[in-house]
Specification:
Chain lengths: ~240, ~550
């Protein structure tokens, strides 16, 4: 089994000349991104319903990436904000211990160094196949809280491909509330999901503390602060 | 060297290549051994390391950028033969790196200082922060053309290229090989024209004992003239008879057989197109031309017409500019290898209707080669590549300001005129309109002639017609002094008193193209969305 050890030198070079965490993205930009993801999803619902209902998470994500890249030719706001969307590029974890972490989607913003895309994690929600909200949180959301994904940033997206009719208000919020009773609270919730009011998509934004510290940014051991997670739950069946 | 590379690059790549037998690359590899791990290294190098595509340089570049963590590259190829680095005529670059393999996602700054005679004559150069983007090591490994695309174009060109790249185009040279086979790796029925006998022409050991070769086998054939090349379809009456007694080296007569596409190696500076012509009959041409004979193709006439349309489009010259390992950084001619590398949709993939369209469009442009008809050619070719009008505009701007010819270099630096300023303001307004619509506002952009401060020009961006004229003018002297000190090319100033945004840009024409306006809009959208929205900034999510 390979030894997992921090590689602060890798992190130091990656973020050289930058101040961490990166400047927060404006809510307006994030709202546009959420809306366009919703539009892309709506297109897939109309043209790829079979795959959404039965395909694997990777198959659905690949379709979504293709559509989001296609919208770069069609959608004026998207075209200005986004350079490209890719599937699972290799990224470093916050301390360099993991060299090949691969988030599901990476949205490369036109304003940012391509090393620091907006990270999107995707999960199928289907209680019939044991893919519940606990998996969504433990195998998805947690990655943002422990510094595996989006550690230089202050925001990230989580997409749920919903096959069991779950909603954020009906499933995620109660799950979060219940989790607060555990010690320590596993998701470090600073703000419960706040509904975004998007068309086509069940969207909400929550805020979470992060349990790691930057290794290289002076002053060393600086807290990364909270992360804002934009949840988009989209009906896949 | 292989030993040094073995621990840093994937095993299956093998030992790194050393093209051109230059000493620079081995020196870098040895530096990785001499410098301590994590130590900083810097080199001034020939810029072919960044741009050359043939002779194994793609593999050499890939290995180097995988083996060393590059921090920054300053591409000085435009500044050769200036006082920035006196007496250096070779295209050069400065490479700064850390002696370690790059981490996943590791990126470096790639900067191309532009030619600015007034500044360069004083031994100075400008590093334009708006054109000094990041490139990841992985991007260099995956896309051997990326640095050339960014050097001769910019981010917008890279986006256009990426869209084209996904369409599975076939390079002309490969297509010709597939159609007609090859000899010693070169496609048959294609080649450079004959070379005149010269003092260096050798006497062959098996021959008539005289320099060069007997050219009698070409006698009787018509020969191409410069005048004949001015028309897309060559007219017999404009041709001479070939009458050279001897030529430097033999050329197969097969490359002179019609129907034939002929390409001039030097694109005329004025019109931003590779000069091509079609001959339906045999014609001999000299070394300043390349030929592609389609005699052995069942639809040879249509094939050469198709190629003529594609290669004479602005898309083709743009492809040569951004992809060629030589054109646009150390050569001003388009070499045959560059033409052969131009990717295009295969002629065989065209439907019958498209082939008829080729003939009709070719006849039209041959008969009436005016701007409107050439624009039709550009649009038709763009549609083959999947480009839209916006892409074509990017291509057009890049050709206008970044071709390597004196006319283009002068235009890029020349003082911007009122027409360009107005067009820039119009494009900026259009680009911001979707955001204005989103926030139910009306945003307009006007040229501010009242503010005079050479070498800058000013625009004012206002919302809902709110001119705020009673408020005092900003202290421009202060801002411009600072901008000059930083060698900036742009100032954006949110003026709270007048409730507007001021935009100042250097008064050189290259900074006022349509593509430049789109890039400015993009930055405004990111940096000033609160103003666009008409509310206080909101990042408190």
């Amino acid at each position: 089994m390979p030894v997992i050890k921090p590689r602060p030198n890798q992190i130091f070079e990656l973020v050289r000349g930058l101040h961490l965490p990166l400047v927060a993205l404006d809510k307006e930009h994030l709202a546009v991104i959420a809306e366009v993801i919703g539009e892309a999803w709506q297109y897939l619902v109309e043209h790829q319903s079979q795959t959404l209902a039965n395909g694997t998470e990777a198959e659905i994500s690949t379709l979504l990436v293709t559509r989001l890249n296609g919208l770069l030719d069609e959608h004026a706001l998207w075209q200005q904000l986004v350079r490209s969307v890719s599937r699972g590029p290799e990224i470093l974890s916050f301390n360099g211990a993991h060299l090949e972490k691969r988030p599901d989607l990476a949205i490369h913003l036109s304003c940012r160094n391509p090393s620091f895309p907006l990270v999107v994690e995707c999960k199928i929600l289907d209680s019939g196949t044991q893919k519940g909200v606990n998996t969504y949180c433990d195998k998805g959301l947690t990655r943002f809280l422990v510094g595996e994904y989006a550690w230089p940033a202050r925001e990230a997206f989580m997409l749920a491909y919903v096959r069991d009719g779950s909603s954020i208000v009906g499933a995620l919020s109660p799950f979060f509330t219940q989790s607060q009773n555990k010690q320590p609270p596993p998701y470090a919730i600073e703000q419960m999901p706040d509904v975004l009011g998007l068309q086509n998509v069940d969207g909400a934004q929550s805020r979470h503390g992060r349990g790691f510290k930057y290794l290289v940014e002076p002053p060393r051991n600086q807290d990364p602060g909270v992360i804002s997670v934009w949840h988009l739950w989209m009906a896949a069946a | 060297m292989a030993e040094i590379a073995a621990s840093r690059v994937p095993h299956e790549w093998g030992p790194p290549k050393l093209p051109n037998e230059g000493l620079d690359l081995p020196f870098i590899w040895r530096a990785l051994e001499w410098a301590k791990c994590g130590g900083q290294i810097a080199f001034a190098l020939h810029a072919r390391l960044l741009f050359q595509q043939g002779d194994g340089m793609q593999e050499a570049r890939r290995a180097l950028f995988r083996a060393v963590d590059v921090n920054a590259v300053i591409n000085g190829s435009e500044l050769r033969q200036t006082k920035v680095w006196p007496e250096i005529s070779a295209p050069f670059c400065l490479l700064y790196a850390r002696n370690a393999t790059p981490a996943p996602g590791s990126a470096f700054r790639f900067v191309t200082p532009r030619l600015e005679n007034a500044l360069n004559d004083a031994g100075a150069m400008r590093i334009d922060a708006t054109n000094a983007g990041f490139v990841t090591s992985d991007e260099v490994v995956q896309n051997p053309f990326i640095l050339k695309i960014l050097a001769r174009g910019g981010d917008a060109d890279l986006e256009v290229f990426r869209r084209m790249h996904d369409r599975g185009l076939i390079p002309l040279g490969q297509y010709w090989r597939d159609l007609f086979g090859s000899t010693r790796g070169r496609p048959n029925y294609s080649g450079n024209g004959y070379q005149l006998l010269r003092p260096s022409s050798r006497v062959r050991s098996v021959g008539d004992g005289r320099p060069g070769v007997d050219a009698a086998y070409l006698h009787g054939l018509p020969e191409l003239t410069a005048n004949a090349m001015t028309k897309l379809l060559i007219n017999k009456r404009d041709l001479n008879k070939f009458d050279q007694n001897r030529i430097h080296d033999p050329r197969s007569v097969d490359i002179f057989r019609g129907p034939l596409l002929i390409v001039h190696q030097s694109p005329p500076a004025g019109n931003g197109r590779i000069q091509v012509a079609v001959s339906d009959q045999d014609v001999v041409y000299n070394e300043t031309y390349y030929g592609y004979s389609a005699r052995h193709h069942e639809s040879g006439k249509q094939l050469v017409r198709y190629l003529a349309l594609v290669l004479s489009s602005r898309v083709a010259l743009w492809l040569a500019l951004i992809l060629s390992g030589k054109f646009g950084f150390e050569r001003e001619v388009v070499e045959k290898s560059t033409i052969d590398e131009i990717g295009m949709p295969s002629f065989d993939s065209l439907g019958a209707a498209s082939v008829r369209g080729v003939t009709e469009l070719f006849d039209l442009i041959a008969r009436e080669p005016n701007e409107v008809n050439w624009a039709s050619v550009d649009e038709w070719v763009a549609s083959l590549y999947g480009f839209n009008k916006r892409d074509l505009q990017t291509i057009s701007d890049t050709l206008s300001y970044n071709l390597p010819f004196a006319e283009n270099r002068n235009r890029a630096q020349s003082a911007v005129g009122r027409r360009e300023l107005d067009q820039f303001a119009k494009v900026l307004t259009t680009e911001l309109a979707p955001w204005a619509h989103r926030y139910d506002r009306k945003i307009s952009v006007s040229v501010e002639t009242a503010v005079q401060s050479a070498p800058w020009r000013f625009l004012r961006i206002v919302a809902d017609g709110n001119e705020g004229d009673s408020a005092p003018e900003p202290d421009w002297a202060k801002f411009i002094g600072l901008a000059d000190e930083l060698a900036a090319t742009e100032i954006v100033f949110p003026d709270e008193a007048k409730d507007c945004l001021w935009l100042a840009r250097l008064a050189q024409e290259r900074y006022w193209s349509t593509t430049a306006a789109r890039r400015v809009a993009q930055r405004l959208v990111w940096d000033h969305v609160a103003w666009l929205r008409g509310k206080a900034p909101d990042a408190s999510h």
